Amino acid sequence: MSNLTLNTKELTDEFFEDTRLLGIVAPIEDSKFCRLLNAILDMDFRINNEIEIQLKKKNRDYFFSVFEYKEPSGFLEHYLYNNRFDGEFLLPEFKRIDFLWLMKGDELANEHISLLSENIRQVDSVQLVAELTNEKIKNKEHLVF
After folding, report:
1. 61-70, 93-102, 129-138: segment of lowest average pLDDT
2. Which residue ranges make up each domain of the chain?
3. Residue 101 contacts residue 24 (beta carbons within 8 Å)
4. Do the beta carbons of residue 99 and residue 83 sit within 8 Å?
5. What average pLDDT does range 38-62 have in this prediction?
6. Percentage above 90 pLDDT, the chain
7. Which residue from 7, 23, 31, 119 puts its CA 20 to 30 A from 99's CA?
8. Domain 17-143, CATH class in plain words
9. CA 50 to CA 1: how far, in whole Å?
């Protein structure tokens, strides 16, 4: 009897087609951060418990919240991941990053990303906003829901 294995690389590559990812340093609670983003950027980020990321490490379960906003016109979807939970990290290669902002579903121009980054920097408590390229992300599969 042969064992079947799930090809997570193919699934991950498909998930990351046409995506852009920002890393944000903002040492505040995730729901407060979303309220600030919603007010300043005129968005409507809401927690989506159905796509919460669960990782098992050191015989424990860790839960990373994901907030979601779908633009009313077009196909662009925004996902804001909390990179920390109880001393563990969703992307351990980015331990200094508090939040990960993934955009997918539509192609985005560099100018759009620059403008969005500038607007995010206007939020109280935001210390850094930087685009993270797919090549720098070692644990991409942790972001797939």
Report:
1. 129-138
2. 17-143
3. yes
4. yes
5. 94
6. 72
7. 7
8. alpha beta
9. 34
Backbone angles phi, psi at 111, to 5 degrees: -65, -40
- What distance in Å separates the CA atoms of residue 78 and residue 24, rounded to the nearest whole number? 14
pTM for this prediction? 0.89
Please report, for residues 26, 100, 110, 130, the alpha-carbon distance to residue 118 in angstroms, rounded to integers and kept in the order given. 14, 16, 12, 10
| 110-121 helix and 30-41 helix, angle to the nearest 10 degrees | 120
Which residue reads 């109880």 in tokens? 86
What's the DSSP call for residue 66?
A: E
Residues contacting 100, CB < 8 A, separation 6+:
21, 22, 23, 24, 80, 81, 83, 90, 91, 94, 132, 143
pLDDT at position 7: 65
Distance of CA 60 to the CA centre of its chain: 22
Please, where are the H alpha helices in 56-109? none
Please give the single-letter amino acid code of residue 101: W
